[in-house]
Amino acid sequence: MEYKLQKYTHKLRNMQNIYYYFNTYGKPIPEKYQKLLNIIRTNFSYIKEATSEEHLKIRIQSNTLCKDDYVARLKLNIGYFDIVFTFFVLNSSIVDSVMNIVITNDNSCYIITYCGFIPILLDTLKNICRKYGLINIHTFSTYQPESDYLLNNGYIKDKNRYLIYEL
């Protein structure tokens, strides 16, 4: 049964068009992100690198993706002050889901924005973090649907209202 589940999950991944986009904002690529890029390119062949035009579709469709989450819409439209790594699902020029992450210096990953809650992105991030050797994935969300979704997918809430997934 476990084999059939893995086969089905693999088939689903291949059906989804998962892309990544790495925006350095003109800064040199830090070593921690170079390692992340190498892991994705060697271990996750179903994730493709996006062009600038494909990434621009996120900004165009941010109102539809974020619905009532004004902060997420702002982050997708304007950007973020730090280097951002973006994963997104693009199906026939429609962006279904977006996740922006930052890798911190304390050996963890931080989800900045997560819109259009498709489980394949969260599962992919967990697998990448395991391969990378990170210890946990943090997020701080005041948007109730995002918090509920993450809590239903293995996250726990700590005393500071952070949502944490320990790998």
Topology of this protein?
Elements: H1 2-15, E1 18-23, H2 31-43, E2 47-49, H3 52-60, H4 62-66, H5 70-78, E3 84-91, E4 94-103, E5 108-115, H6 119-132, E6 136-139, H7 144-151, E7 156-157, E8 163-166
Parallel strand pairs: 1-2, 5-6
Antiparallel strand pairs: 1-3, 3-4, 4-5, 6-8, 7-8
Domain count: the total is: 1
Largest sheet: 8 strands, mixed
CATH topology: Aminopeptidase
Annotation, overall tally of beta strands: 8
Distance between the termini: 24 Å
Q: What's the order of the H and E elements?
A: HEHEHHHEEEHEHEE
- Multimeric organization: single chain
CATH class identity: Alpha Beta
Indicate the CATH architecture: 3-Layer(aba) Sandwich
Number of helices: 7
> What's the overall average pLDDT, rounded?
86
By secondary-structure content and strand pairing, the structural class works out as: alpha+beta
In which range does the helix fraction lie?
40-55%
Low-confidence runs: none
Identify the overall geometry. globular
Summarize the structure.
By secondary structure, this protein is an alpha+beta fold. The chain has helices at 2-15, 31-43, 52-60, 62-66, 70-78, 119-132, 144-151; strands at residues 18-23, 47-49, 84-91, 94-103, 108-115, 136-139, 156-157, 163-166. It has an 8-stranded mixed sheet with strand order 2-1-3-4-5-6-8-7, with helices on both faces.
